[in-house]
Amino acid sequence: MVGMLITLFVLGILGFVAVSVVLGLMGAVFGLVFGLAGFLLFKVAPVILIGWVVLKIIGKSRHRDRISPADQKWLDS
């Protein structure tokens, strides 16, 4: 009877340790994933968005100065 109680106690402790390790690893993984996602969303994405907008503005201003070859041909005729 005492041996069975000790066995159950040891198995309970081992199960508790195993569950704690698994939950700790899951917490570390989720922490890294959410940290990386937050970094990309709040640090990298705004810089990329601003760069994209600047390139679009520069691209539109450069294309206004030029005319297409078809329009140039029409003007020359």
Tell me about this structure.
- The chain has 77 residues and is mainly α.
- The protein contains two helices and no strands.
- The protein has helices spanning 2-65, 69-76.
- The longest helix has 64 residues, at 2-65.
- The N and C termini lie far apart (109 Å).
- The mean pLDDT is 91.
Mean pLDDT: 91
**What string, H for helix and E for strand, traces the elements in order?**
HH
Distance between the termini: 109 Å
> Share of helix among residues?
over 70%
**How much strand?**
under 5%
Structural class: mainly alpha
Query: What's the story with the biggest beta sheet?
Result: none
Helix count, per DSSP? 2
Name the shape in a single word: rod-shaped
Low-confidence stretches: none
Radius of gyration: 32 Å
Number of DSSP E strands: 0
Brief digest:
The chain has helices at 2-65, 69-76. The protein is an all-alpha fold and 77 residues long.
Layout of SSEs?
Elements: H1 2-65, H2 69-76
Keywords, separated by commas or semicolons:
2 helices, 77 residues
